[in-house]
UniProtKB/TrEMBL annotation:
InterPro entries: DUF892_YciF-like (IPR010287), Ferritin-like (IPR012347), Ferritin-like_SF (IPR009078), YciF (IPR047114). This is Ferritin-like domain-containing protein. It comes from the Bacteria. PANTHER family: PROTEIN YCIF.
Length: 174
């Protein structure tokens, strides 16, 4: 038996709250990374830009929830922000942090992409095309970020390894 429009709207609200928590997690992780990236100016600039993009995406989700007469869940958001904090600290002592963070961010972008695709389908199914249209803007931004990272990961890895080689070469001279 198919869900009623009211039931579908309840599911949509719940998923929008999850997505708001996800974007809060993204902001938390990226802000931590921004504070730690050195020697990779292009990556730093893109991370800073994506902090602002993610904040806008969170605002959009809040607007969608407001249109449905509700708001984000402070419990869900709080938990995700704690996770985001822990994730961004996990690489603290690793010298290859920049490579690991790029790989993680690429995976996280795809997590976001998948969530927006599900949300858009849910909004359409619940007869909320305006909400689907708003979410599509965020989906396009995540696709852009994922594409950017996809191109940069080999280059960041090469740069990292070249620097490591330079370091061991100078260590060898001593
Ligand atoms: Fe995002």
């Amino acid at each position: 038996m198919e869900l009623t429009v009211t039931d579908k709207t309840e599911v949509l609200k719940d998923w929008l709250r999850d997505a708001y928590a996800m974007e809060s997690q993204a902001v938390e992780m990226l802000e931590r990374q921004v504070g730690r990236i050195e020697n990779y100016p292009e990556l730093l600039a893109k991370a800073k830009e994506h902090v602002e993009v993610s904040k806008r995406q969170a605002d959009r989700l809040k607007d969608c929830l407001a249109q449905l007469g509700t708001q984000p869940s402070s419990i869900k958001t709080g938990i995700q922000m704690l996770i985001g904090n822990a994730q961004s600290l996990s690489g603290v002592v690793a010298p290859d942090e920049i490579v690991k963070a790029s790989v993680f961010n690429y995976a996280f972008e795809h997590f976001e992409i998948a969530n927006y695709r599900a949300l858009i389908a849910a909004a359409e199914s619940a007869g909320k095309p305006e909400i689907a249209r708003i979410l599509k803007q965020s989906l396009d931004e995540e696709l852009e970020m994922a594409g950017w990272l996809e191109q940069r990961i080999p280059q960041v890895t090469q740069t990292y390894l070249t620097r490591r080689e330079t370091m061991s070469a100078s260590e060898a001279k001593r």
